[in-house]
Amino acid sequence: MPRWLGPAPQPKVAILGAAGGIGQPLSLLVKINPLVSQLSLYDLVNTPGVAADLSHIMTDSEVKGFKGDAELKPALEGAQIVVIPAGVPRKPGMTRDDLFNINAGIVKTLATAIATTCPKALIAVISNPVNSTVPIVAEVLKAHGVYDPRRLFGVTTLDLVRAAKFISPHTGAITAVPVIGGHSGATIVPVVSAVSSAKGISAADRAALIQRIQFGGDEVVKAKDGAGSATLSMAYAGSLFVDSLLKGLTGKATPKEYTFVNSEVAKEFGLEYFASEVTLGPNGVETYHALPSLDADEKKLLEVCVNDLKANIAKGVDFVKNGS
Ligand code: NAD
Ligand code: LMR
Predict the structure, then answer these.
(1) Residue 303: phi, psi to the nearest 5?
(2) Is 168 marked as a binding-site residue?
(3) Which residue among 74, 107, 150, 271 is least crowded, i.e. fewest CB within 10 A of its CB?
(4) Which positions bind substrate (predicted)?
């Protein structure tokens, strides 16, 4: 059949940091996604083994491992989606912002390679602190003249995954909860008032629920006791987000996701980035959705969120613009 009558070519997904705690299970979940045709696994270490292992799975996608700086660009060539879980995770007592000094440089290097190799790719940033690493990627893309705000995403899906799970004892079922703002502590703003089946929840239970969603990451960091932060739940959440990007690329579906993006919603708060709901399509974001209405308590949470986000975003921008 001539190419133009055949199915649309299926995408190549590159995962940067693919041998890590998130990288390996995420690579597995992306390998079994039927919408993927090529899977490119990049890390500083161990990717040949991870790729060989995954390549035996009987799904159609081809897997290749790329190791070390010299193989970064080959890993990215032709990628339509790039996922970045590269970088160090927290230990007990650390905030996500404490990761900035190491992860900012890692993310900047990876973003530079994306800008010069696959500038049209949809980029999903997992590396923390997301509130600052997304601005870093954006500034690098801007410096190369290839920034398209519709194609750059901070992955906040784990906050929604946690919220849906943590609210379930109150609603009797896994229940979607909008989570807006950013991805760290007080910048994570769950909008419980938008959940009709949670109307009967007591004030104390609601406060505890919100606190747990905001600080769910700390729960895992503490339980892992020095061995890192959430990896398996993050891989699950990341695979949901990648699946939505893939479905959007087909042009036949209109998946919706909450994600940390540059938007008009962000501008309303004087910010450049803010996590809110978008509809995805072949070019990334198709539609930016308005926020759900917030009650008085949620408006207070949002005030704190916006203040923190301003500082987090400025830190990322400064890192690229002024090297600080
Ligand atoms: P990890 O240490 O297990 O794995 C990180 C991987 O990154 C390692 O394999 C390492 O070799 C690799 N790496 C380091 N520098 C690199 C570079 N320059 N190029 C390519 N690869 C490089 O850590 P993890 O548990 O997988 O966490 C990774 C990051 O994801 C952390 O920053 C963590 O805080 C973050 N995270 C984010 C979310 C979220 O919701 N967005 C959730 C969990 C973790
Ligand atoms: C999470 O929410 O689990 C991640 O951001 C990792 C962390 O540092 O808590």
Answers:
(1) -60, -45
(2) no
(3) 74
(4) 90, 96, 128, 162
- For 168-202, write each residue's pLDDT tens digit: 999 999 999 999 999 999 999 999 999 999 999 99
Answer whether 137 contacts ligand 1 (Cβ < 6 A): no
Together in a domain, 202 and 78: no
**Token pair for residue 166?**
């943590």
ipTM of the complex: 0.99
Q: Indicate if 161 and 151 belong to the same structural domain.
A: no
- pLDDT > 60? residue 106: yes
Compute the distance from residue 255 Cα to the ligand 1 centre, in Å. 26
Whose alpha carbon is nearest atom 8 of ligand 2? Answer: 90
Q: Please report which ligand is nearest the Cα atom of 25.
A: 1
Surface-to-core class of residue 271, CB atoms within 10 Å of its CB (0-12 exposed, 13-18 middle, 19+ buried): buried
State yes or no: 18 annotated in a binding site.
yes
Task: State how far the Cα of 75 lies from the Cα of 71, in Å rounded to an integer.
Answer: 6
Domain that holds residue 17: 12-155
Identify which has the larger pLDDT, 61 or 1. 61
Are 64 and 38 in the same domain? Answer: yes
Cα Rg, the chain, nearest whole Å:
19
Q: Which residue in 56, 144, 170, 183 is the catalytic one?
A: 183
Same domain (yes/no): 175, 46: no
Query: What pLDDT does residue 210 have?
Result: 98
For ligand 1, atom 39: residue with the closest CA: 126
* Strand pairing category for 188-190 and 179-181: antiparallel
Which atom of ligand 1 has the smallest separation from the CA of 155? 41
The neighbouring-strand residues paired with 192 are none
Identify whether 183 is a catalytic site residue. yes
Q: Take atom 38 of ligand 1 and give the residue whose Cα is closest.
A: 126
Please indicate whether residue 94, judged by its CB atom, sits closer than 6 Å to ligand 1.
no
Q: Is the C-beta atom of 190 inside 6 A of ligand 1?
A: no
Strand extents, DSSP E, 144-224: 152-154, 179-181, 188-190
φ/ψ bin of 96: left (φ > 0), alpha (ψ from -120 to 50), beta (otherwise): alpha
